[in-house]
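Hi V.,

You were right to ask for the full record rather than a summary. Here it is.
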Amino acid sequence: MIGFLRGVVHSVWERGVMVEVQGIGYEVQVPSSTLSSLPPVGQEVTLYTHLSWREEGVNLFGFETPEDREMFRLLIEVSGVGPRLAMTILSSLSSSQLLEVLASGDVNRLKSIHGIGKKTAARLCVDLKERAEKVFSGKGGLAQAPDVLSASEGGVAKEAVSGLVNLGYSEREAWAAVKAVLDGAGEREPALEELITASLRRLVSEPR
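Predicted structure:
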């Protein structure tokens, strides 16, 4: 089993990346979220991988974080969900968004993803709700991001994160910036506009 790859980005195509490791090029299929966060060709990248052996061939799937890979592995254990559909799901929803959808049983949101019908959406909610929460709880993963905020901060923080995500930042980047601003504010709770502006200032000043 190949647990992760650390090498140089050799080339990128629509659904994946070629990673060169000690003179060997590994073709890795990645979700769109990972694809958009890849460094430029020639720079180093680390991908957490899953090797799939199926009748149609051997495929290597890669993810930006171990949590994303774990979610992929949970998805492909569900009847009717193969690797390609799992990649489509993770290209449409981040791990934390998917966790929220599963926890709320939002079948309609899942049905909006290409390739998922009513039965598959219902099966995902039934099979993965408790398992997904168990995998991510206690590991400091994406699902815990809102939990580091107080109850009074939670609503404003979530709105700020949503605004930053709409500006093109990942949820991880947005939560980190918002948390840093709230920590610096002490007991004073910033207004939404102030929180977004201060968080954006931090994100702009830090290399992505």
